[in-house]
Amino acid sequence: MSLFTRMSDDHPTLSGFVSLPETAFMHVFENRDLRVILGERKQGAPMGAEDVEPAHRELTTLGDDTKGWGLIIDTRLVTGNSDERFEAAVSRSNAVLLAHFERVVVLVRSAIGKLQATRITGLSDQILVTTEVEAGLEFLAQSSAPDPGDPSR
Fold it and tell me: Which of 16, 18, 31, 62 is the one with CA 20 to 30 A from 4?
């Protein structure tokens, strides 16, 4: 069974995810059963250094009560940005994401993208950079199972 459902020719998304309002830079989806938000970077929507923190903050406001969920940022449809200012903004903004989401997965297209994104995200045990969707979902599943004794989950 495929993990992907084709929303359109340009926009594949993971099965079981439903659309949320999109942002200037991302198509956004949620899967309540998995407790995961998926932000797929839009083609043709370049993100500058000044856009990173507001875009990350916006992800924390979408969906209904997603604090403590997992987040997948799918960057595979866009070209990497190796500008120093952009990389520094992403590094600083990781704290915004990790204050809201329990774990973050960054999906990249290539080994070079993985090296760049790993350098930017640092060595946090809460962030995984991968080219493999399945590895990302497994990483998020390690900590996103609801605790039956916790009524907030």
Answer: 62
Would the pLDDT of 70 be above 60? yes
Residue 95: is its pLDDT beyond 50? yes
Q: Report the number of distinct structural domains present in the chain.
A: 1
Domain of residue 34 covers 4-144
Residue 93's CATH number: 3.30.750.24
What is the reported pLDDT for 75?
Answer: 92
Q: What ranges make up the beta strands (E) of 1-153? A: 4-8, 11-14, 18-19, 26-31, 36-41, 70-74, 103-107, 127-130
Distance CA 4, CA 96 (A): 28
Residue 153 belongs to a domain: no
